Amino acid sequence: MISIGGRAIGPGHPPFVVAELSGNHNGSLERALAIVDAVADAGAHALKLQTYTPDTLTIDCDEPAFRVAAEHELWGGENLYRLFERAHTPWEWHEPIFERARRRGLLAFSAPFDPTAVELLEKLGVPAYKIASSEVVDLPLIRLAAATGKPMIISTGMASVSEIDAAVSAAREAGCAQLAVLSCTATYPAPPSESNVRSLPLLAALTGEVVGLSDHTLGIGAALAAVALGACLIEKHVTLSRADGGVDSAFSLEPAELAALVTESERAWRSLGGVAIGPRSSEREGLRFRRSLYVVRDVSAGEPVTPENVRSIRPAGGLPPDAAAQVMGRHFTRDVSFGTPLTWDLI
Fold it and tell me: Could you tell me which residue ranges the AFP-like domain spans (predicted)?
C-alpha cells in the first residue's frame, strides 16, 4: 500500500482514479479550470498535469526525425515542437490549477519532464510525482524526483522488463519508499487488444509494488478489467467534450464517463470479495425459498402419498425434491394439514 496526501492506495482500498488534464485545456486557462471542476464533480480522486515546455522536451527543428510518423492516427506528420506548443500547460497556470483542485477536494500533482519541472513542482508543494512512459528510461530524472521523498507513480508503456527493473531500482535507491507502477500502452488512442491487462499480476510480482493502469483506450472497459486483475490506480485523460477537439480529446473521457468510471471501478473492486464458494450471508433469505416437498392437500392417517397430495414447491423446510421417488406410495402416519412440510416422521 502507498499513501498520497493521506489517501491510501492499494489492494485493500477502492481504486484511486486520476484524471489527466494534459493538453485538453486547448490553450485556455478558463477551460483548464472548468475541467478541474468537472473532474471534482465526477468524483475522481486526483488531477494530474504534465509539466514541460517545448524547449524542455525538444528543439525547434523540422528534420524528419522531429516529425510524428505520417500514418499516426491523431498527430500524423506534425512537428514535435509545434505539437508540444499546443499541448503543454504553461507553467504560470500550474498554481491556479492546483489551487482550484485543492479547493474542490482533489489531490493535484504532475509529471515532470526535466529538472526545472521538478524544481517548479517542489515550489508548488505537490504531494507526489508521476513519471511518464517516455521518461521511464530517464533514470537521472527518476532519481531526482525520488530524492524528494515523495510517493511516485511510474508508467511502463514501451518498457521492457529490464527497463522497468532499472526504473524501479533507481527510484528505490534514490529514496522513494512509496511507489506505484502502471501498466500502459503508449499509443494514442490505444487498441484494447494491446492493453494486455492480464499482465498486471506479473507486473506486481516482478516489482513488488502497487500496480495500476494508465489507460489510453476508448471508454472504461479496459480500466474495469484491470481492476479485476489487481489495478489499484486508474489514470485516464479527461476533456469537457470530445467534440471540442484538442490534441488528446479523441481518447479522453467526458465528465459523465469519468463519473461512471469512478462508480463502476469501485463496484468492480467490491465485487472481487474473497475466495469462497457457498452461500453468502446476503443469500440467507433466498435459501428459505428453495424447493422442497410439501403436503398440498389435507390428508388423513393411512392415506398413501401421491403426486396429488405431495408436491415439490417453494419454500424450503420439507424433504429435498429428489426424495419424491422414495416417498411416493408410502402412507401417512397421522392426519396432516395442507401447507405442512413433508418430513420422514409423517410417513
Answer: 292-347
Q: For residue 306, give the CATH number of its domain.
A: 3.90.1210.10
Q: What values do phi and psi take at 266, rounded to 5?
A: -70, -40
In a domain, 162, yes or no: yes
Q: Are residues 330 and 254 in the same domain?
A: no
- Residue 206 and residue 258 in one domain: yes
DSSP secondary structure of 172-241: HHTT--SEEEEEE--SSSPPGGG--GGGHHHHHHHH-SEEEEEE-SSSSHHHHHHHHTT--EEEEEB-S-
The CATH number linked to 183 is: 3.20.20.70
> Could you read off the pLDDT of 184-241 as tens digits, one per residue?
999 999 999 999 999 999 999 999 999 999 999 999 999 999 999 999 999 999 999 9
Query: Is 130 buried (19+), middle (13-18) or exposed (0-12) by CB count in 10 A?
Result: buried
